């Protein structure tokens, strides 16, 4: 699963930590590269029991991606 954690996304802290709202859900290829935003998706809400780990990446420009 991949997503865009942007300015409209949210991570809870106190008193209920670990809830994540990720504003865009993205399809990944077999190498976990981001392909495209899921059409008509309004994002995803994850509870602490829904995930074991979350990894964040720095946004790359289209030039860096070779596009």
Topology:
Blueprint: E1 2-4, E2 10-11, E3 20-22, E4 24-28, E5 34-37, E6 44-46
Report the count of strand segments: 6
Query: Strand portion, in percent?
Result: 25-35%
Which quaternary structure do these chains form? single chain
Give the biggest beta sheet.
3 strands, antiparallel
Helix content: under 10%
How many domains make up the 3D coordinates?
1
Q: Structural class of the secondary elements?
A: mainly beta
Order of helices and strands: EEEEEE
Uncertain residue segments: none
**Average residue-wise pLDDT:** 90
| Gap between N and C termini | 22 Å
State the helix count.
0
Computed CA radius of gyration, to the nearest angstrom: 13 Å
Shape descriptor: globular
Strand order of the largest sheet: 1-4-5
What does this molecule look like?
By secondary structure, the chain is mostly beta strands. Helix content is 0%, strand content 30%. The chain is built from no helices and 6 strands. The strands form 2 sheets. A 3-stranded antiparallel sheet has the order 1-4-5, with no helix packed on it.
């Amino acid at each position: 699963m991949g997503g865009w954690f942007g300015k409209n996304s949210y991570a809870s802290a106190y008193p209920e930590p670990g809830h994540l709202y990720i504003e865009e859900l993205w399809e990944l290829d077999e190498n976990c590269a981001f392909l495209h935003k899921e059409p008509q998706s309004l994002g995803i809400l994850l509870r602490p029991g829904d995930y074991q780990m979350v990894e964040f990446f720095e946004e790359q420009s289209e030039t860096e991606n070779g596009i």
